[in-house]
Specification:
Layout: E1 2-10, E2 16-25, H1 40-66, E3 78-88, E4 91-100, H2 120-132, H3 135-141, H4 154-163
Antiparallel strand pairs: 1-2, 3-4
């Protein structure tokens, strides 16, 4: 007996894709109590392949939805693809995720007002941006109230740039 498992994946807009999941061969002459049905390793392999197929199809469908601009309904191009690994119950799923170029009609990201710098949330946001960027870009991202002066020591400057807020220097 030959067993072929296929999954038929249908998107929300009606596109149908068939994916071969697994193929088993169980000859009737070799059938006994130990070879009846699927083994545990066969079942795990089937579930891992099914998870990979379903996750890939879902990621592709989500990408297609996010490529359409919410404002002008233009189709945004893909910049490149990045590999992503997701740990699931049925094993690691390897996906090739696209980076989508923003539509020209979308405004740039808003800057947080300088008056909001005193809040802990704003300080944390600035700290994350400052650590992730280069020192030249870091100084331009921070509002004037957070930028360091030339009178402080290099170690204090380093702490200040990582923390995202002013460290009191020498008087």
């Amino acid at each position: 007996m030959k067993i072929i498992l296929r999954a038929q994946l249908v998107t929300d807009w009606g596109d149908v894709t068939e994916v071969d999941i697994a193929e088993f061969s169980r000859p009737a002459s070799a059938l006994n109590a130990t070879t009846l049905g699927l083994s545990l390793s066969d079942g795990k392999a089937v579930l891992a392949k099914l998870q990979q197929a379903v996750a890939s199809a879902q990621a592709h469908e989500l990408c297609e939805l996010h490529r359409v601009c919410q404002r002008c309904h233009r189709w945004n191009p893909i910049k490149d693809y990045r590999p992503r690994n997701f740990e699931t119950v049925f094993g690691t799923v390897h996906l090739r995720c696209p980076r989508i170029i923003s539509c020209p009609c979308e405004p740039p990201l808003p800057r947080v007002a300088d008056s909001a710098v005193g809040t802990p949330l704003a300080r944390a946001r600035y700290a994350r941006m400052a650590v992730a960027s280069s020192s030249v870009v870091r100084r331009s991202l921070l509002p004037p109230s957070c930028q360091y002066s030339s009178r402080i020591s290099p170690s204090q400057r380093k702490i200040q740039s990582r923390a995202g807020f002013r460290v009191n220097g020498p008087p």
